[in-house]
Each structure stands twice: as structure tokens, then as C-alpha cells.
Specification:
Layout: H1 4-16, H2 63-77, H3 83-97, H4 101-112, H5 118-131, H6 134-144, H7 150-162, H8 177-185, H9 192-205, H10 208-218, H11 228-241, H12 251-260, H13 266-278, H14 281-293, H15 299-305, H16 312-320, H17 329-349, H18 351-354
Helix pairs in contact: 1-4, 2-3, 3-5, 4-5, 5-6, 5-7, 6-7, 7-9, 8-9, 9-11, 10-11, 10-12, 10-13, 12-13, 12-14, 13-14, 13-15, 14-16, 15-17, 16-17
Length: 360
Amino acid sequence: MVSLGSRQAYQAISQFGANRATADKTQSGHPPRHKHASHLRQSAVDQAPSTELHISLPPANNPTALNDWQQLETALSRQERQQAPILAAQLAESLRQQPDPDVYLRISTHVLHPNEPLANKAILLDLLTDTATPEALNQLLDFADLELDPSLSVLVLQSIARIGDNRWGGQFHEELSPTLEAAWDNPMRNDVEFLAALAKAIASIGAPKGVAQLLQTVSTTNTSQDSEATRRAKQEGAFSAIPQIRNPAAAAALAKGLEQEPIGSAAFDASGRGLASINSPNATQILIDYAKDAPIESSQNLAAWVPQINDEDSLKQFAATPENAFKNPEVGAPIQHAADKYRDNIAATNPVIQHGAKLK
């Protein structure tokens, strides 16, 4: 849903350039992805008069955020490229503590204004990515609904893709996932680059439902009503994004895929790659337990997954797994190889082991 901030920013800028006869035309000729995007088209301001922007905006609800914004706005106007990112990080923290729609409106106004330097817009988009709250994410998705200049559109999609990488407060922000999941299911949002950005963000956040959604996309049981082109774009985006998963909370969803999807299928391989990419003891134990009774046909998959794991505790789990624990030795061979390599590395750095003690 297009936010009030983006709509107000657009309306303010459109009024600023209301004397243009071509204000409502798009440059690309393609329909917008969102049903409200026609009210927000960037092309309506692309040819605005080349003068300074003076728009009266409502007062902010968060005085701290407003003060931080005013400092950042001053730094941007002076093109203080080193100071601006520092002030943007300060504002991001204020917006995490207390979201302020009016500050978001001010950000939108600058991002959408044609006279704002692209470097300033990049800083503001990075600000939204670093804020990594539902409000900031919605603002980025609103921008993605617009007919933007190509260079700005690329920056917006990059910001969406990276929003899950920010783990402020030392945690994965799974509260962002429902919004991304809804956008993924929206049939109006169907261009390849946008879907790839969504998939990357969903995987980086790693919420169980979002990960299950990506797996379902590449599953042989996918019954989506999307067009063939959209389905293919989603499958490619999901398959490429799943190795970006790091959230241990996603392990259960990936384990389900490992057990239920046919060996050799894209969803089966994606499930194993996802577990390996988490690089945590719980996810690694799932792979070990699977390998113990796995059919020999899965040996090549294990050989590709296991070397991706380098977490110290996971390597200890490999070393603690007996050689005879596997029904098919070929399936367990990659795990035993990783265990042997781990023991050798420990022995090389431990004089006691070098002189005959055996690592268990």
C-alpha cells in the first residue's frame, strides 16, 4: 500500500511543477506495478523547473528525529559527503526509537525531487535501509511502485535487497518479513529485478514463513497462478537468494524441504544449501541426521553442501560423528572429510595433539 508520506511528497512536488502540460505522462509507457502508482509517478516531476524546492511541510512528531533530519538536510545541501552518512545513521537510530511520518515525508520529498543530486538520494535510501523498520521498508516499496529514473530505480532496488542485512539490536528483524511476503505474492509486482530484490530481502531476514514461501516457489508442488514469465522470475530469484539465509530460525522450514522434496529437485537442493549457509549447530545437526539414513543418490548434494560450513561448533559436530553412523558411507564421506580436516587443523596448532593425543 502506498504510504501517505509518499503521496504527500508527490503532491507537493507536483504542485511545485504544476505549470507543466505533460506532468502525468510516464517515460517508459509501461503500466505501474501498483494500482495507486499512477498518483505517484516520478515522471510527473522529472521535468520540473530547475529551481530550489521550497515546500511547506507539517511539523514532525518526533523532535529528536526532526533535529537529526535538519542537521542531515543541511549537510546534504552543502554536499558534505563525509558528514552526511554519519548524520544519517544518527537519524536512523532516532526513527527506530520513534517512527515519524512527517520525517519520512521530508525524506520522500528529497528523494523524489528532480533537482536533488543522485548522491544525496543514495544517502537517503541508505538511511531507509539502515533504519530497517516496517515504516522504512514501506517507504522503499512505495518508491519501487513509481516510474523512476533508471539510475534511481537501481538504487531503490538495491536498498530493498539489503534491508534484511541490517541486524540492529543484534537480531534478525522478522517483523519486516510479512510486508515483503505480501509484496512477493502481489501479482502486480512482477518485474525480474524487483522480485530478485524481494527474494534477497526475505532470505536475509530468514523468517520461517518467508523462507517457506521461497521454498514453495521452487517446489515441484508450486500451484501458483502467476504467468509463466513471472513464475520463472520468482523461481530464479528464490533459488539464488536462499543461500543468503543466516537466521537459525529458518532451519525448521528448510529441514521440512529436505525431507519432503524429491532428491535432485531444485527445492531439495535449495533446502540443503540453505541449511549449510546458516552455519549454526542446529542447522548442521539437521544435515548430519539426514545424511545418516539418506539414499546414495543424495551423496553429490552433501558433497556440495558440507564444504560451505565453517562454524567452529558445527565442525566439532562433524568430528564427533562416528564413521559408522551412516547407512551409506558415500553419503557420509563429505562429513568425515570435513571432520578429518578439522582434526588436522587442530593438531597443527596444538603441540599436545601433535605428540600423539587423539582428538575426539
